DNA sequence: CACGCGTGGGG
DNA sequence: TCCCCAAGCGT
């Protein structure tokens, strides 16, 4: 009798699983749901390499979901700075508080799905990995592997339905969490977007895309829209070895993060260029930063006048600017000012 | 379903 | 330099 996809994949996983900080070692019981959840949220659209230091810092500082739930929001946001997609951090705090309030993580996919920041993928992943539930876990890796295995020619995202149906068929009743992680390891190391390594693949036999001779062709994706170029200005106001920082609105770009004052640029519109204070402004240079939907050319200007900023904000000591939790865009701007 | 939402790395 | 992307979610 021929072995199933799950059999072959799990056998491969038992020998080749990546060792990652949020994973249980082979033979150990399922890892702490808090660590599974935290890692999965951090890994949304984010590489393993980028996540590792943040995962280490978060778990050292907030070892439990209860500890995270008690943390001041701005400290969590600052700790997330640089990782991107800051709505994840905002939802992370909300979810931590909801979980702490109910005394622990729910252990079913449906209940997990109700927590902020847990969509179809993450709810299934946590249910399978942390609670050993059978759940069909479909991320971009699984989409790629499945699209190739079954030669699904429908372009993404249309193909999602067919792919999840195929993934459902392939998912085993036991070890669904290991199966999910095995699929993701396979996608990350063997069945890669470019140049898949079919000679090393445990599923090569019976893979339709491999038989076709051009596995990298699948899954078919539509081309992305062109990014507009936006221009904006950020303002460096320094006094007594402190810089004036504001907090951005809770939604939208870099929402909830500390920032330099700016002229109202966004991914949709250029900034107006109006300075927040009257007086001399010296150009410090320009920062180019690429967001998902726009490329921003940010001019940075330093205030030379004597007025005091109005409205919400805080004087932040330059000596501890690294702790302010500036998103990368503003960290670049600060580097200009301090150079 | 389409869009908005970061960042750093690889080819 | 440029493009694509890497364990998606919320609206």
From TrEMBL:
Source organism per entry reads Qipengyuania benthica
TM region positions: none
Question: NCBIfam families attached here?
Answer: mutY
Xref: SMART domains: ENDO3c (SM00478), FES (SM00525)
Record protein name field: Adenine DNA glycosylase
**Which family would the database say this protein is a member of?**
Belongs to the Nth/MutY family.
What's the top EC group for this one? hydrolase
List its EC numbers: 3.2.2.31
């Amino acid at each position: 009798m021929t072995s199933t996809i799950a059999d072959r994949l799990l056998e491969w996983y038992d020998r080749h699983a990546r060792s990652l900080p949020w994973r249980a070692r082979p033979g150990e019981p399922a890892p702490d749901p808090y660590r599974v959840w935290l890692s999965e949220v951090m890994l949304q659209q984010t590489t393993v390499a980028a996540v590792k230091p943040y995962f280490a810092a978060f778990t050292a500082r907030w070892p439990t979901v209860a500890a995270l739930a008690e943390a001041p929001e701005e400290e969590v946001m600052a700790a997330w700075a640089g990782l991107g997609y800051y709505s994840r951090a905002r939802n992370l705090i909300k979810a931590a508080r909801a979980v702490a309030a109910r005394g622990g993580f729910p252990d079913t996919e449906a209940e997990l799905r109700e927590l902020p920041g847990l969509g179809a993928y993450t709810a299934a992943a946590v249910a399978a990995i942390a609670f050993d539930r059978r759940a069909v876990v479909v991320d971009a890796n699984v989409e790629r592997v499945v699209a190739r295995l079954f030669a699904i020619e429908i372009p993404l995202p249309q193909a999602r339905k067919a792919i999840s149906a195929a993934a459902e068929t392939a998912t085993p009743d036991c070890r669904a969490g290991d199966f999910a992680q095995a699929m993701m390891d396979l996608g990350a190391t063997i069945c890669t977007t470019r140049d898949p390594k079919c000679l090393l693949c445990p599923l090569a036999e019976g893979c339709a895309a491999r038989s076709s001779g051009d596995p990298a062709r699948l899954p078919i994706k539509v081309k992305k829209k062109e990014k507009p170029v936006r221009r904006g200005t950020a303002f460096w106001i320094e006094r007594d070895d402190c810089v004036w920082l504001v907090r951005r609105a809770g939604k939208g770009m870099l929402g909830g993060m500390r920032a330099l004052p700016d002229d109202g640029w966004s991914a949709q519109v250029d900034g107006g260029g109006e300075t927040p204070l009257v007086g001399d402004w010296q150009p410090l240079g320009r920062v180019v930063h690429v967001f998902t939907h726009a490329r921003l050319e940010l001019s940075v200007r330093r205030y030379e006048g004597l007025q005091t900023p109005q409205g919400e904000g805080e004087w932040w000591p330059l000596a501890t600017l690294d702790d302010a939790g500036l998103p990368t865009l503003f960290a670049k701007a600060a580097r200009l000012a301090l150079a």
